[in-house]
Amino acid sequence: MTHGKPIVGYLRVSTAGQGKSGLGLDGQKEALRLYAAQGAGRVLATYTEVESGKRADNRPELQKAIAHAKRSNATLVIAVLDRLARNVHFISGIMESGVDFCACDNPFATPLTIHILAAVAEDEVKRISKRTKAALQAAKARGVKLGASRPECRNLTQEARVRGAKRSVEVRTEKARAAYDDLLPLMRDWRGAGSSQQAIADKLNELGHTTRRGKAWNQVQVARCLRRAG
To answer: What is the pLDDT of residues 33-65, one digit of tens each?
Structure first.
């Protein structure tokens, strides 16, 4: 348990019916409340996922929770882990996000557990990589030209360099935009309702959101996000 750090909670039910009726949610909310009451930290926000069962890899609320926790340097607390940890997308998302993680219903599901689970998948990736390298070496031995030795890969033109620099800027912009994908709908709704950019910044701060650098929101940052989103 990470004491003192703020918390972003994640609740999950498997059917739309359960989501509407609240079945299972009360217990998860109570588990999250008890976790926070033990001195873990203040709950900034709670995200609730309602899964249909058809697309187990599609968890938009989980992605929002991860994004919020990452921005706010918070611990991502999942009330019910069950089969979630065996989902490759979940493991990859947690590992790549770098956020602290804990599950209320499984105290052993610490970041170390996630590392172990991910290590199994990583081992398979390494095995595939070795097989690929062996195949490339065999192709090279047969005289097949690979990589930079191919004529079309030699000496980038000025035009190619310009395209590369432009793409680099685009990638940085895309990353900045993706960091706030979960907040943009709120910003647009508030803006459409007549809120000023400073008022939007104030609302984001009140809800416990920070920028991806951990700073409080202001009018300039809101304007920049809305402009990037078009």
So the answer is: 888 888 767 889 999 888 754 455 567 888 899
Contacts of 180 (CB under 8 A, 6+ apart): 67, 212, 225
CB atoms within 10 A of CB 216: 12
**pLDDT beyond 60 at 2:** no
CA 181 to chain centre: 10
- Per-residue burial over 166-194, b if 16 or more Cβ lie within 10 Å, else e, is eeeeeeeeeeeeebbebbeeebeebeeee
Work out the burial of residue 14: count CB atoms within 10 Å of its CB; fewer than 13 is exposed, 13-18 middle, 19 or more buried: middle
Q: Which of 191, 215, 189, 217 is nearest to 204 (CA)?
A: 217
Which of 3.60.20.30, 3.40.50.1390, 3.40.50.300, 3.90.740.10 is the CATH number of 1-154?
3.40.50.1390
- Report the distance separating Cα 8 and Cα 18, nearest Å: 22
